[in-house]
Write a structure and sequence with these properties.
Layout: H1 2-17, H2 27-59, H3 62-67, H4 71-74, H5 79-85, E1 91-94, E2 98-101, E3 104-113, E4 122-132, E5 138-142
């Protein structure tokens, strides 16, 4: 019992010697935090754009997918049409992306297409590039 009181007394004195955490971090740390949050928000918006585009591909919503393209990709050269016409039902996986330059991200994707006849499921490894366009609108720069 004597040792218990000694332990409580020592533990209580340690608690008084501690300092409270700072509520306002120094200004440089706050700026780094704000910048990291902004970059994280950009990453999430780019990932969301890639996911919405690929979801429109699966569901066959051409108008939604085309509205997300960069202007040069939406010109009639057949690349968009050939991508959208591919056999479905389809599936995709989006992997962790990387920042190419400010406002532009590349996401590795795996596209799955149904088998043709007795063959296996068609698997295509590719990448989709998303960038922030005019008026903070995120667009697809490169199709998978």
């Amino acid at each position: 019992m004597k040792h218990l009181f000694l332990f409580i007394a020592l533990a209580g004195s340690l608690a008084f010697g501690q300092t409270a955490p700072q509520h306002n971090p120094p200004k440089p740390d706050r700026m780094k935090t704000i910048q990291a949050l902004h970059e994280g928000a950009d990453y999430m918006l780019a990932l969301k754009t890639a996911d919405l585009f690929l979801t429109a591909w699966i569901s066959g919503e051409w108008d939604v997918a085309q509205s997300m393209l960069n202007v040069r990709l939406s010109e009639p050269d057949g690349e968009f049409e050939s991508f959208m016409v591919s056999a479905c039902p389809c599936a995709y996986e989006v992997n962790h992306g990387k920042k190419l330059r400010p406002g532009t991200y590349e996401f590795p994707v795996v596209l799955f297409r149904p088998p043709a006849g007795n063959s296996r499921i068609a698997v295509q490894h590719s990448a989709i590039v998303v960038s922030r366009g005019r008026e903070d609108r995120w667009v697809i720069e490169k199709l998978p």
